[in-house]
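In this supplementary section we document a worked example of the pipeline. Step one takes a protein sequence of length 462 as its only input; no multiple sequence alignment statistics are reported here. Step two produces a three-dimensional model, which step three serialises into structure tokens for compact storage. The input and output of this example are shown verbatim.
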Amino acid sequence: MHTRVMRRARVSEPGATGGVAGRREPAVRTRLSAMFFLQWATWGVYSPVLGRCYGAPVAEGGLGFSEWQIGLLFGLPGTLGALLAPFIGGQLSDRYFAAERLLGAFQIALGVLLWVLPTQTRFGVWLGILVVMSLMTAPTVALANALAFAHLPDPKGEYAKARLWGTIGWIVAGWGFAMVWLQTGLRPQWLPPFLKGAEVPDVTRRLLDAIRAGACLSVVFGLYALTLPHTPPKRAGVDPLAFRKAFKLLRHRSFAVLMATGLFAAAIHSIYFMQTSKFLPTLGLRQADILPAMSVGQFAEIFVMAGLGWMLKRLGFRWVLVIGAFAYALRFAIFGTTWLPLGVIVASQALHGVCFACFIAAAFIYVDHLAPNDIRASAQTLLGIVLGLAPILAGVLSGKLASLCTPPGGKLNFSPYWYTLAAIGLAATLFLAAFFRDEAPEPAPPAPQRQASDGATTGERP
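The serialised model returned by step three reads:
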């Protein structure tokens, strides 16, 4: 009897001796994969079309917000969420609440707010609700990761496989909504998304329903999260400003260069989500095809992430990071060349996967290798907080560029807009190539881990 009690006690400890909880429950990998699937499906169904919803004229069913307002809606909530997430979610889960319960409560509350959001038309109300949402959204990434690392039998070897289902969820949700709600008379075709029909007449107005779909998925995810393996709080005193210890890493030139480059790379990364859903329809892409078209980047991400470990071994951190930074410049240069065929511009979104894997993911892996064990988590937090400044920088930059690229009484001229972002990306690439030197130890990199940068900390999406 005593042995059984002790065994239960050990199993209840998350992460105990290589994931005992995972061995006790054979289906734990499937359950955690489903967790990531639902988490990213919730965002993937509406995030890519927010820019179009914000900017479309009211007469067409949009909100009619200005470029400055759009920049603020994307920037302020993203930055506040990224900066405050370590203190809100981290403190609550470390001291007071089980991770799965806090995750479930956040997601259900987010579902309620998402359902209310499309009923509002005033900019101030939207901004206020999005700020509140960001304070709950950003911690959910860390909470899901905590659950995965606590209960996977082999976290280093199995995390990437489980997290892959998040990218699949993003794609499936976007495709499913576009096919079911934005089109009629679906017919099979050879090219993705393999089913295509006539666009519904009120398609712009229906784009706002993507937010309601996200609300439903968020509630479903929240209820599902409550069934996940129990992950109690550590109840140990955790310093909410522990990242201060990581400032000593700034003595390494590579870390300082990476932080500076990362801030601007993450800013133009955020602008991609602000403007792409508005830009593609100006080239003739149907609004019903925005979600499938923007998922090209997620498909590429799957393959590039799979080969990232090999690239780091063969090329080293410096050149992998340079490739990732240059992918930003190349993508925006292609976007700016608006006379190119629409298919080429849509296909160029595959570079989004290169940007994320080779720069954002590789940056977090590099910091993990550079930092000593005692400040490793703090260093990751510091990098996340610095990159978390990107959304507000992106909002200001986008608003200023849009005003410069819009003639009086006219519409935004996207060509010089994108070329300017391409120039910023190229400057960041040259700066990185010139001044970054790999100062990390030699051991092979671990499996890449999606940090809160995937849509929360850095304001970008997968």
